[in-house]
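Re: beginner question about structure tokens

> Can someone show what the tokenized structure looks like for a real chain? I only ever see the sequence side.

Sure, here's an example I had lying around. Input first:
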Amino acid sequence: LYGRSAVGGTVNVTFAKPAFDWRGSTLAEVGNHGMWSVSVAQNIPVSDTLAFRIAGDVLRHDGYMATGADSADDKAGRLSLLYVPNEALSVYFWSQY
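And the corresponding structure tokens:
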């Protein structure tokens, strides 16, 4: 928490770095009020020194009120790159939408 009588704090988000194998994951959820969610992530090894990871999330929810309040239509995407030319150096870039 920051400051006296602070209501909030910080959120630390860490993403999985690319790996040099074809490991991936998929998570799908459904619920009431038209809720559904899909999360997908996939590692893409290009060579022994270069790997990418692509991930995406989609969340859709109709909401609880007749006016449509509390509805959700969220999309997110991440692309990351890991370059490890030798044991002394690794370069990690990522972008998020």
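Each token stands for a local structural state, so reading them left to right follows the chain. The CA atoms of residues 78 and 96 lie 4 Å apart.
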